[in-house]
Amino acid sequence: MHNSDHAAVRPLRIAQIAPLAECCPPRLYGGTERIVSFLTEELVRQGHDVTLFASGDSRTNATLVPCTDMALRLNPAVRDPIPYHMIMLDQVRRRADDFDILHFHVDVLHAPLIHAFADRTVTTLHGRLDLPDLVPFYRAFPDIPLVSISDAQRRPMPPVNWVGTVPHGVPADLLPFVPAPAGDYLAFLGRISPEKRPDRAIAIAARAGLPLKIAAKVDKVDQAYWDEVIAPLVAAHANVTFIGEINDQQKPAFLGNARALLFPIDWPEPFGLVMIEAMACGTPVIAFCSGSVPEVIDDGVSGFIVHDMDAAVEAVGRAGHLDRAQVRETFMRRFTVDHMARAYVSIYRRLAASRCTEADRPLADSDAPLQVVA
Questions:
Q1: CB of 55 within 8 A of CB of 74?
Q2: Alpha helices in the chain (DSSP H)
Q3: pLDDT digits (tens, 9 = 90+) for 82-125
Q4: Pair 271, 168: CB distance under 8 Å
Q5: DSSP structure string for 204-237
Q6: What's the pLDDT band for 247 if we cut at 50, 70, 90?
Q7: Tell me, what's the pLDDT at 373?
Q8: Furthest-apart CA pair in the chain: how many Å?
């Protein structure tokens, strides 16, 4: 008993393998790298021995293995990110025996390289999984241990080796609680893209008679949508202000001073980090019922889940009556980085324990220094 008790509290040797598009943490947007950074720093804080494979301009208290000089998105010389990820994954493969667990955040790239140690890996899937090209892939690699970031994210997948669902979490002190917002406006934060439905946000604010502030980036792929659809709508509505992309220093005031965050999505959002960022400020969320929304928002407590435009407009009027302290409390209870890290450590240890159980069965006496108590 004593030996197993001791093993349960032993710090783990953990590798975190991040995408190279952004540094950890990213300077502006970059959801996956941001979560990897939060998780890595919290695992270090909790006493684990963590090695982060990431771009060389990352900042971390873990041991950093720099796999490129700088984030690939910021390097104008980089045309194809795949060779750089292959170089990183080869380094990871060569050092695999140094770790109790290897936690991958790079989608599908590593699958053929980890057969020999797949039982010591976890792969968090950060994106949408309803893409037809993914079905044959996951049929070909059904045994890789996978983690979803919401249960809704799993729905389109063939049978695979799910080992847990771990919602995202952010540091409790990242976004301060704002008990009394200084502005009476609605906020939209994220990307200008058809599936995020900023057009819905504009229509909701117009019908509710409130200002709307849009803090969003326009990716190249969405430039035409901005030019042809959203920019004319912004120009046509005097109540709408387009701010552009904001950084972490601007985010607390932007979210905290809003009456509500509008999250009028029209796609199966795997998680929706901005929802818990708003909740951290005490700002309720008005979200359309799609993807992970019902798993993140407690309807009538941390916001309102709506099914159509009429309900969204009506929710705007009710949002000001929600208890912002309760919104913050819901965040603290469910979506801090501490919760996220402990959930992952539980999965890491469960995989390690099942590996030990299988390894113990065929052990010869000479290989077993510890007495096993039945």
A1: no
A2: 2-9, 31-45, 82-94, 134-140, 198-208, 223-225, 231-236, 251-256, 273-281, 293-296, 309-319, 324-334, 337-360
A3: 999 999 999 999 999 999 999 999 999 999 999 999 999 999 99
A4: yes
A5: HHHHHT--EEEEEE--GGGHHHIIIIIHHHHHH-
A6: confident
A7: 33
A8: 80
User: What would the pLDDT profile of 171-213 be if each residue is shown by its tens digit?
Assistant: 999 999 999 999 899 999 999 999 999 999 999 999 999 999 9
Please tell me what DSSP assigns to residue 170.
Answer: B
Token readout for 10 is 């032993």
**C-alpha span between 170 and 334 (Å, rounded):** 10
- Any idea which residue has 């949408």 for tokens? 128
Instruction: Name the residue type at position 349.
Output: R
Contact, 23 vs 54, CB < 8 A?
Answer: yes
pLDDT(362) > 80:
no
Q: Is the pLDDT of residue 1 over 80?
A: no
Q: Measured between alpha carbons, how far is residue 175 from residues 1, 65, 108, 287 in Å?
A: 43, 29, 32, 20
**Tokens 């798993």, residue located:** 295
Q: How far, in Å, CA of 40 to CA of 62, rounded?
A: 7
Is residue 80 a contact partner of residue 109, using CB atoms and an 8 Å limit?
A: no
CA distance 298 to 314: 17
Question: Tell me: the pLDDT tens digits for 281-339?
Answer: 999 999 999 999 999 999 999 999 999 999 999 999 999 999 999 999 999 999 999 99
DSSP assignment of 97-139 equals GG-SEEEE-STTTTGGG-GGGGGGEEEE--S----TTHHHHHH
Q: What is the 3-state secondary structure (H, E, C) of 298-326?
A: CECCCEEEECCHHHHHHHHHHHCCCCHHH
Predicted structure pTM score: 0.89
Provide the Cα torsion 27, 264, 155, 161; round to 10°. 20
* Terminal Cα-to-Cα distance of the chain (whole angstroms): 9
